[in-house]
Design goal:
The complex is a heterodimer. Chain A is an alpha/beta fold. Chain A contains ten helices and twelve strands. Chain A has helices at 2-19, 39-54, 68-80, 97-105, 129-143, 160-175, 192-206, 221-234, 248-255, 268-283, and strands at 28-33, 58-63, 85-89, 110-113, 123-126, 149-155, 179-186, 215-218, 240-242, 260-265, 292-294, 298-300. Chain B is mainly alpha-helical. Chain B is globular. The chains are: A alpha/beta, B mainly alpha.
């Protein structure tokens, strides 16, 4: 009988959760991401939710905590419910290629926000990751002038945007004879700040001599923050850190004169706005303006941080 | 009359102990069907769910085998990732499909056997050993992929098993059913299966009875790794890409499915059809709750609570019997 009781509890929970279910005749937008715990992804999802609300759409957010297999499953579920549009946030669309095609067959437009564009999608809005990486990498190299640059790379290549940034770094690094890569570490997601802090602490212990590490290039801001915390805690001087994304914690550290000297502020608001505008157009039966759209990014240093 | 009532109550209780989880699964299906009749209760969605749970069922079957011998394999997620990555790399290199599948499976059997050998030879905890092996495999997978997703130049033939259908049913669903039946037969109708249960029930008594404990345990770990790698290969085939962390998400649900399964059919004992029901419940919950637009964090709360309740009930049931 206890099992029955547990079933009743579970079912009533489900019923309660759905009691405040969606209204009919409103457009339904499914927002899917595997990285909701990331500050920037979260920021974009919230902006998309806000924009959806403003447009009178019913937005449902699905997070699969880094699990791409689950993302494919959940995408199939929302396709089965005949949503009016799907937005993939910070997702490599190549991993859900079959689902994008399935959505296309059911005339459900798939939009990307900080993802990438592949055939079958309506459009994608992002920052130009290659351009941002070029901007921050050149700034980092300029900061150290002609001195030898012993570089630690903190990245996560499975993320499509971060991969593009890292590939650009690889290219620029090879063009600069002053740069020596000490090590490249893949940062665990979720938990990038804590993980990169630990990695950096270990690297600092393994490279105790001054000048053995002179710079840390992080593929996004969270590992840059973790590395900065480790450098500050160890009291090491002569190491500069850069990030990309321009999240508020990173900008604050730049403002305070920490080892984190620069980041590139992505225009997440711009991306979410671009996607929302395109969804609006498609829902009105119009075509998208451009399949790949870029929201311009800005370099943030101590001089302009917080302004 | 009183005796009849007591007998009836006892048999009803027994029925619920054995079939309660299955009954709960049916109730959940009914509930979702009522709440979402246009999307949940459709043939398309049944096919959809059968495809979605296929990896979980396959990897959970392996977890059931090692749980039957009283052990755990925490490297199954990493094994699945490695399986998918090796298969995809071979496919990109232009190898024939049968070789793309065979090589990672052979590798997985060797790794699984090594897991078992270390555990039985040095009498160390399977938790720690397989956790270590999982970390090693994770490292190898990152090394093989350079951390990136493999999706370029994957031939169409690689997507066949994961994306095609036979008679409007996904091939994945056929594979899942076939393996479930095969492993049900192995566990219930062969000497090997009976030996695994005997080892799990009482290892020293089994040893005294002449059962080759170490050898059978090694085989259980080898099968477990084999199924994990197969799940990874099929996932890569379905997604048309292989991600170095793709199997990670299967690890915890696989054990949740096996634990849920322990509350069905053979109470308190890991069993194949129980695991199938457990994986199906997890899959149906995820599917139905998504369709009802329940936020994903609440989905986790509901799924987690159901697993906890199931495990408590399984313990209570075992103690009572």
């Amino acid at each position: 009988m206890k099992k029955i009781l547990s079933i009743v509890i579970a079912l009533s929970l489900i019923l309660t959760l759905t009691a405040c279910g969606s209204k009919k005749d409103t457009k339904k937008i499914a927002i899917l991401t595997p990285y909701l715990s990331s500050v920037t992804t979260n920021q974009m999802v919230n902006l998309l939710k806000k924009e959806s609300k403003a447009n009178g759409w019913d937005a449902n957010v699905v997070d699969t905590k880094g699990d791409v297999g689950q993302l494919a499953n959940r995408m199939e579920d929302v396709i089965a419910t005949n949503v009016d549009a799907i937005v993939l946030v910070s997702t490599d669309p190549n991993q859900v290629k079959a689902q994008i095609q399935a959505a296309k067959e059911k005339n459900i437009p798939v939009f990307g926000c900080d993802s990438a564009y592949i055939d079958g999608m309506a459009m994608n809005a992002t920052s130009d990751n290659t351009a941002m990486s070029k901007m921050i990498t050149e700034h980092l190299f300029q900061q150290l002038g002609n001195k030898p640059i012993n570089l630690v790379v903190l990245t996560y290549r499975p993320h499509p945007g971060v991969l593009k940034r890292t590939l650009e770094l690889d290219k620029l690094r090879k063009q600069n004879p002053n740069v020596k890569k000490v090590i490249e570490q893949q940062v665990n997601v979720p938990g990038p700040i804590e993980n990169s802090r630990k990695q950096m602490e270990n690297l600092l212990l393994a490279n105790k001599e001054d000048g053995s590490i002179t710079a840390v290039w992080a593929g996004w801001d969270e590992p840059a923050i973790g590395a900065t915390q480790a450098i500050q805690a160890a009291g090491r001087k002569g190491i500069i850190v850069t990030g990309i994304d321009g999240n508020s914690q990173a900008v604050d550290l730049i403002k305070k004169g920490s080892p984190l000297v620069a980041t590139v502020k992505q225009n997440f608001t711009g991306m979410a706005e671009l996607v929302t505008k395109q969804i609006e157009q498609v829902l009105q039966g119009k075509a998208v303006t451009e399949k790949e759209q870029y929201a311009p990014a800005t370099l943030i240093t101590k001089e302009n941080a917080g302004k | 009359m009183n005796r009849m009532q007591t007998t009836y109550a006892v048999s009803l209780r027994k029925w619920f102990r054995v079939y309660g989880t299955l009954f709960a699964g049916i109730l959940i299906i009914l509930c979702f069907s009522l709440l979402s009749p246009d999307s949940f209760a459709t043939v398309d969605n049944v096919i959809n769910i059968s495809r979605q749970i296929s990896f979980l069922v396959i990897i959970s079957l392996g977890a059931t085998l090692v749980m039957a011998v009283g052990e755990f394999d925490l490297s199954i997620g990493a094994m699945a990732s490695l399986g998918g990555v090796v298969a995809a790399k071979l496919a990109v290199a232009g190898q024939p499909m049968w070789l793309c599948i065979l090589i990672p499976l052979v590798v997985s059997v060797v790794i699984g056997y090594i897991n078992g050998w270390i555990i039985t030879k040095f009498k160390v905890l399977s938790f720690i050993t397989t956790l270590g092996m999982g970390t090693v495999l994770g490292g190898i997978t990152f090394w093989l992929t350079d951390g990136a997703t493999i999706f370029e130049n994957i031939p169409d033939s690689f997507r066949y098993l994961g994306q095609k259908m036979w008679f409007t049913v996904p091939i994945l669903s056929f594979i899942m059913l076939f393996l479930t039946i095969v492993f049900w037969y192995i566990m219930s109708h062969t000497a090997f299966g009976r030996k695994l249960y005997a080892i799990g029930g009482n290892e020293s008594a089994s040893r005294n009875a002449g059962v080759a404990v170490a050898q059978n345990k090694n085989l259980a770990f080898a099968f477990c790794a084999l199924l994990a790698a197969l799940a990874g290969i099929l996932m890569a085939s379905r997604l048309g890409s292989a991600q170095p962390t793709s199997g990670d998400g299967l690890f915890l649900p696989a054990y949740a499915a096996a634990f849920l399964g322990m509350t069905s059919f053979k109470e308190g004992v890991p069993n194949i059809w129980g695991t199938f029901v457990g994986a199906a419940i997890i899959g149906i919950l995820a599917n139905g709750l998504t369709m009802l637009e329940v936020p994903s964090f609440l989905q986790d709360v509901v799924t987690g609570c159901i697993v906890i309740v199931a495990v408590i009930l399984q313990k209570i049931g075992r103690d009572a019997s």
